[in-house]
Specification:
Elements: E1 7-8, E2 11-12, E3 15-16, H1 17-26, H2 34-38, H3 43-56, H4 65-75
Antiparallel strand pairs: 1-2, 2-3
Length: 90
């Protein structure tokens, strides 16, 4: 049964939060798809937008914090800037 604010099994106001969170988490697991490799230059932006979406959905801890921080640090270059993916120019 739904509560007063319509939350039930990951559904909030008609939005299937659990499904959205699962989709965001799945985006880095598609290593067998060509699109995954063709968009590696967008990876750091994807991290940003994925984290924003997870915060909006109320699930900021859905991604492993240490893994995300480690990845972002690996994208930082000697000039202090960040590339779109590891080994990319700032």
């Amino acid at each position: 049964m739904a509560t007063a604010d319509n939350q039930q099994d990951g559904v909030h106001g008609g939005l299937y939060v659990d499904k959205h969170v699962a989709y965001i988490k799945s985006l880095d697991k598609r290593h067998d798809e060509m699109e995954y490799w063709m968009t590696e230059h967008l990876r750091i932006s994807g991290i940003y937008w994925g984290l924003v979406a997870l915060h909006v959905l109320g699930r900021p801890s859905a991604l492993d914090r240490d893994e995300v921080i480690g990845y972002v640090k690996r994208c930082q270059n000697a000039d202090g800037g960040f590339g779109g993916h590891e080994g990319h120019d700032s």
